[in-house]
Amino acid sequence: MSDVYLDSSAIGYRLRAQRLMVAVVLVFLVFIGRLFQLQVIEGDSLKRSSEENFIRTAVLPADRGAIYDRDLNRLAGNKPSFEVFVTPAAVKKPEALLAGLRDVLDLDALDVDRLREKLIEQRGVWRYQPVRVQRDVDRARVARVEALRAQFDGLTIQVKQQREYPQGETGAHLLGYLGRPPVDAPAEKGVRRPDDLLVGRFGLEQKHEDVLAGRHGFERFVVNARGGRSSDQRALGAVDDIVREAPVAGNDLVLTIDADVQALLLEALANYESGAAVLLDPRDGSIIGMVSKPSYDPNLWSGRLPAEVKQAIDDNPYKPMIDKSVRSFFPGSVYKVVTALAGLEEALITADEEVDSPGAYTFGNRVFHCHKLSGHGEIDLSEAMAASADVYFYKLGERLGIDKLATYALRFGFGRKTGLLINGESAGLVPTRAFHDENTPGGYQFGLALSTAIGQGDARTSPLQMAIAYAALANGGQVFAPRVLDRIQTSDGKTVARYAPQVVGRLGASAEHLADIVKGLERAVSDTEIGTATLGGIEGVRIAGKTGTAQVRDIDRARYAGEKVKDFRERDHAWFAAFAPIDDPKLVVVVFLEHGGTGGKDAAPVARRILEAYQARIEPIFPVASTGASTPRTSAGGTE
Amino acid sequence: MNRNSAASLARMDWSLLLAVVLIGLVGVYNLQSTSISTGSNIHLKQFYWLSFGTVMMVIAASVDYRHLDRFSPFFYALAVILLALVLGIGKEVNGSRRWFDFGPVSLQPAEVAKLSIIAALASWFNRVPRPAGYTLRDLVPVAALLGVPMFLILQEPDLGHTLMVLFIGLSMLAYEKFDRRSLMILVLTAVVMVPVGWSFILRDYQKDRILTLLDADVDRLGSGWHALQARVAVGSGGLLGKGHGLGTQVAGGFLPENHTDFVFANLAEEHGLIGCAFLLGLYMWLIVGALRVAGQARDKFGGHVAVGVAALIFWQVFMNVGMVLSLIPVTGVTLPLMSYGGSSILTVMVAIGLLVNISMRRTVF
Q1: What is the pLDDT of residue B280?
Q2: In this complex, is the C-beta atom of A24 within 8 Å of any C-beta atom belonging to chain B?
Q3: Which CATH superfamily is domain A259-311+324-618 in?
Q4: Distance from A302 to chain B by nearest Cα, in Å?
Q5: What distance, in Å, lies between the first and last C-alpha atoms of chain A?
Q6: What CATH number labels A57-255?
Q7: Using the beta-carbon criterion (under 8 Å), do A35 and B277 form an inter-chain contact?
Q8: DSSP labels for B21-47?
Q9: Would the CB atoms of A232 and B251 count as touching at under 8 Å?
Q10: What residues does each domain of chain B span?
């Protein structure tokens, strides 16, 4: 055959074939080298990449602990809430679906546009990620969304735990509410939490976040490229980590609060826009009820807060989001118990000593007025307290000086936080000489001691502090830390921790002197001739109480010029602090009406209504069954 | 005749057949793993194709290859006609027409055309001998023989197969002796053609693939996605692999085309460096064996066909494995005998049949 190789050329071909073989072997060596690089040198990091690809960690949210009142009524708990999601990749008719959702969920144009953008413009694997349309959808709407689901692909409804406050507004400030974690909160490393986690942002929900939150669990699972849970979970074997950790539910709080008392406190404050009321057990410092007005609905704050509700609250001049029970205000005459006790203890006065107490007192070049222009004449301590005679206390303040007054104010627990430590609790202010030297223009002047002696000047106290102080008068001198948390228990009712009453200070006063003060306080309520607090009295019940009307500006001139103070901000604060029954004190009540009028006419009747309602609806505390608890006592015409 | 056949069988290169059988079985085993996650039974189909391919291989090995020399113009013309037809009546998939759809089976003419082109080139070199070396002018017909099918395949468009035809042609040229000056001009022209080809021949998505090779992390969900996921699959396999059927890249759907273009990534993920080295060793054995057959061929035509078959397998492995290992851009070239696909299997098996054919009829020195 002609095409058979000639020997000489065959050698050339064989040589070139060998060269090609060498080239092939070299290329394969390069491949092996590259495989070594990828699989051995970069193997670990690429292995992690593949795990990131297919293993997702889902947080299993822990159930938040509930909050109960002292009778185990639920004040805060969880209820199922529905969220509507849409998965872009599954949607076939986006416009029709958007129209349906708009009708059912009342979406506004902005929501619809945002959703349309996600439905249409989302690319790649993100199309498989469900997009939340709305949270906290009520049951009626869920039913209509279900109907939409039958028509359109891509809709899902998820059930989540939603915080619920069955008592609504009544517990608002004390309980608090939930919200997004503060943005500036440092992210704790290694702590898993759901993307849409809500934490306590106010009240006890915030203070006891650690107890209530529990520990979130997690679950790892294999996903496919669409981000969905893969049907094949065997690849989990590739992770030698823990695959699932069950969530641990938060513990429950049992409070000393009584839910019904909360309601009756708000009822009693019904006629006033702004203020606070505290009901306290003087025997152990337990708070039975504590409210602040205006209130708000924590259910809305912890859920989907409608913009108009938020706006209304922001615009409310009475500032619903401030807890007035722990903020401090000028106390006015309720503070006079400090001056009285200081005078007795320092032996600068005796209970029987009569002091001339005219309508005005000139000290230096300044005239200090009494609220009663005609004055009170020669009066002793109990009369001075009952009538709230200002000049008596000016004179006493002059003898004491501001620093001695401060010493006793501090013993009552004023000037420092009570220890409740919620809602930006204020320490209040007990003015001293040093304080004035530092803060008052022109420095300390002796006249400031006189103002402070009647609770004017710069003294500031919170309603809660006032309750603690009057509780000390009632219980023989023990200053308690307010007790609101009785115990912590697990969700199945096992007690984890109990909180005993805590005495944080003592008045250190003699029983005699305390009795002298109580005598004055009783007379303020019961002495129909001179008592300023007679509207706070209940027939047949021995009540010790003191009114306060704190001037928030230099009203002397305005008031005596007969001007009506129209502006809310310029009206006086009204206070009333009392305890009952005197023989065996079981309740301390403090009513504070911000710019709410006078202590005698406004605050005292509120307190009386509170005590009457407590007696009638909660627990009989008075030795004499007050049959006509709801009939108001006819006014004895007492004035302040 | 009987004696002659016995002698031929004795001369047959059994090691080539062993390599083919082993690669085929590794391929079925590997596809069985991807079947687990996809719930299909493509590994069984692959096995049937391999069986059918074995029959074709035996036929290709039995009929004396020198008849192919005579019929090569006919096969070449048939290939060109099919390549032209597929542009008109082929099934459109993802914007390209590469397949004839015959219901249950489909045929990729570019696969089959490679064999016709190898035969045509071998035949030409056989008929136009230049013992002193080929000059450029001599090669004009070669350029035409390669250019026409390349042009048609590029129209589908199918860059992978276009390049395959070019590389096979160049490899067969490399087996020949060249006029020194012509060789230099050829190399220079090739260098000049790179930027020209970039501007006028490559389509945008093809350029993207080349660019993303250089920086695959630019767009994780775009064109770099395939390359990145393949690299993750390979790398996460480590030395020994994750185990058969335990590859998460395939099961999770992260690795695209895992039963065709990216089968090697699946093997690498599940069987690691050891499994890859074993498979690459088999391929190397097969290709070096094919070149050995070429060197021992009794005639020029046989030698060139053997080189063409070696090139066919080598360049397919090169482009496919190179792509999976992110060494070269992503092109849709399958891995011979490993990737699922009848056309590819039949082409390779027939090519191996020709190789056996040539080895059986070799000159004994």
Answers
A1: 96
A2: yes
A3: DD-peptidase/beta-lactamase superfamily (3.40.710.10)
A4: 38
A5: 140
A6: 3.90.1310.10
A7: yes
A8: HHHHHHHHHHHHHHHHHHT--HHHHHH
A9: yes
A10: 2-360
